[in-house]
TrEMBL record, chains A, B:
SUPFAM superfamilies recorded: Actin-like ATPase domain, Winged helix' DNA-binding domain
Family per similarity comment: Belongs to the ROK (NagC/XylR) family.
Record-linked InterPro entries: ATPase_NBD, ROK, ROK_cs, WH-like_DNA-bd_sf, WH_DNA-bd_sf
Full protein name: ROK family protein
Transmembrane feature ranges: none
Length: 411, 411
């Protein structure tokens, strides 16, 4: 699926991007209008347009505005809303999520598939390739235009900080992540990497529950408990890429051992496994979250009592972080959110009780809206790198060297 | 002390700033070199230089480099290291702190004076005027060049968020702070305002213990417990100006009532009053921090035991915030830091115990170095607005309208 990347093809890509950018900005344009805006020669422009139409990236329409009987109706060109441009992949612990946006930067499709936690990277990348392929056919006559891929934005579990675009910046982490090597081989484009929960925060802050907010705290309650921060209008990575580790804030001194090496972390109380274990220890019966949700919906006391306690711990932790950072919106995502008010109400009560009183009515609690593809969408945001939320995000050296992200680099 | 601010005086100020900026950037320059850099006419430049020399802002020196016997030695012009340019004032709860920097943006003097917590604003501003006056005479033949004041940067207690330069941006806080009105009357220049603890954080991150760091957590242990954050290289205010409220993170659920309206806040355990009260309740005798410090230095068990417990609470809180934000440096300031290792060691132990293990050796704990004038210095930083840490800080409308901050606005 890779394509030639020599100087001529890069020049052509630059021209294509220029034309696509104009159509993204202005909407439908006639060939004449495009010519005025882009400054390309008539021959070059018509060549580029023929190719973009043949590829399905651009479609033609006859303008409705032309007065009858006054010559031929003008033909306008517009972005094909079904043509894909960028993909994001979230390599979560036990499943894979893929999303694609079209040339107008609208989400055109997403796909997910669960897998075992120990599936090797080679097979995960195979699966990713198949899921990306499955996005072909979404909408009417859609086709993910893989030839137009600029980069793949990827989320992985665990801390990512020193690495951008496969270039290590931290002496402790000087090898690229295996998934970067494998995906680069497969797609022939740069692979941008970040922590998948931080990417989910970015996704929610661009397309989801906190779209348009400048100070956002995102908490994910899943197999792990983690999160991400948008701080003063920028995605925050923290020194060494270690921000958003809300799951490892101590909530029970001397409590249960946590995978991180600490004890009594929020994750030992509020992860899926912790919640299900505690529920079963209290006499409840549920093998997974959907069964727990069923018990909650039936009004079962054991389930409600347990979630009340878990919610209180979560709310106390959120209050501490709120006092430190001062967000206007808290977004809560992850599978456990499906338990609804049984969890969100005790969270909100504890948050309001423990946050500094002057902030009580200034911070709002919302459920995530993007579901399990939030991380994949955040990966797309990294690729497009157009959100002001990314203004302080390091631009990878790969992007500077390999990509024709902006037409101005190819006059 | 105010000066005419008509268009002509502003034009002249622009020229002055241009010349001062060139000397700040290049160091000593001859008149000819200055002429080449600044683009002003010879007559205008010589006029400006004559005035700056008469004011004491610029001093002349004879270059050492001129070969003997080859004409007159060249005269160079240089900034007077003793001439003041900007002042910052910290209106703390029980005292006033003032600092001044020279034209090279080096700190040239600072003064403090304690006062009662209920001293009216009029008298505080009077006192501020006197302290600013006292900075005259610092160093050899120094004189604070009040005529060159561009603005006064001021720290006050409590949340400040919606207000910049006297212009309210928050519907709840639409009146300027009384100190802004009074200071503007007195000095005739705009008054930039922020929370004084956040300004102390800024001061430490520019001139103090964390100079050069991009992700800094500053905690102040004083009559109140508060702090500030530098996040990804920017001073962070938070939505509604409510960041850095570390003192109101709950550390003892159901604990003592706090001034904020909550209970069991860190401030109820780690403020000066809380520590002295607990010390006396445990049988210790100390009326103030210096007496407590004396007890600590004599190795008194009661004092050491108490601080060990307080330090543990502080360290746990810092660990929670660290996990959320991922700073590389924690700076601790305020009077209680004078207790030394008796407090800092238990803080560090608890921090290391509760922070996520992978961050343990990545975050360093430091004592503040600027002392009680950190907030006043942060106020100066607001006025100069030259630190990259302020790149996301809102520029006040006053600055845009009144000030000739950049020569380019006066061609």
């Amino acid at each position: 699926m890779s394509q030639p990347r020599g100087p001529l093809s890069q020049l052509r890509r630059g021209h294509e991007e220029l034309v696509l950018g104009l159509l993204r900005k202005h909407g439908p344009l006639s060939r004449g209008e495009l010519g005025k805006h882009c400054g390309l020669s008539r021959t070059t422009l018509y060549d580029i347009l023929a190719e973009l139409v043949a590829d399905g990236a651009v479609v033609t329409a006859t303008s409705q505005d032309t007065p009858r009987g006054r010559g031929r109706p003008a033909e306008t060109l517009t972005l094909n809303p079904d043509a894909g441009q960028a993909i994001g992949i979230d390599f979560a612990r036990r499943g894979l999520h893929v999303a694609a946006v079209n040339l107008a930067h609208e989400v055109i499709g997403a796909a997910s598939e669960p897998h075992d936690a120990d599936l090797p990277w080679e097979q995960r990348v195979e699966l990713a390739g198949r899921l990306v392929g499955s996005l072909t056919g979404i909408g009417s006559g859609a086709a993910l235009r893989l030839g137009a891929l600029e980069a793949v934005g990827v989320g992985v579990v665990g801390p990512v900080g020193g690495q951008v675009g496969g270039q290590a910046q931290d002496e402790d982490e000087d090898a690229p992540h295996p998934v970067q090597v494998l995906l680069r081989e497969r797609f022939g484009v740069p692979v941008l990497l970040d922590n998948n929960t931080r990417l989910a925060a970015l996704g929610e802050a661009i397309w989801g529950a906190a779209a348009g907010d400048q100070d956002v705290l995102y908490l994910r309650l899943s197999h792990g408990v983690g999160g991400g921060l948008v701080v003063g209008g920028s995605l925050h990575r923290g020194a060494y890429g270690m921000s958003g580790e809300f799951g490892h804030i101590t909530v029970e001194p001397g409590g249960a051992r946590c995978d991180c090496g600490g004890t009594g972390c929020l994750e030992t109380v509020a992860s899926i496994r912790a919640v299900l274990d505690a529920y079963r220890a209290a006499g409840g019966r549920a093998a997974d979250v959907p069964e727990l949700v069923k018990a909650v919906r039936s009004g079962e006391e054991t389930a409600l009592g347990l979630l009340s306690g878990v919610g209180a711990r979560i709310g106390e932790t959120l209050a501490a972080v709120c006092n430190a950072i001062g967000p206007s919106v808290i977004v809560i995502g992850g599978e456990l959110v499906e338990t609804g008010a049984a969890l969100s109400e005790p969270i909100e009560r504890a948050l309001h009780e423990h946050v500094i009183p002057v902030s009580r009515h200034r911070v709002s609690l919302r459920s995530a809206t993007l579901g399990e593809v939030a991380g994949a969408l955040g990966g797309i945001a990294l690729v497009l790198h157009e959100s002001p939320l990314l203004s302080r995000y390091p631009a990878g050296p790969d992007l500077a060297e390999d990509l024709s992200m902006t037409p101005s680099r190819h006059p």
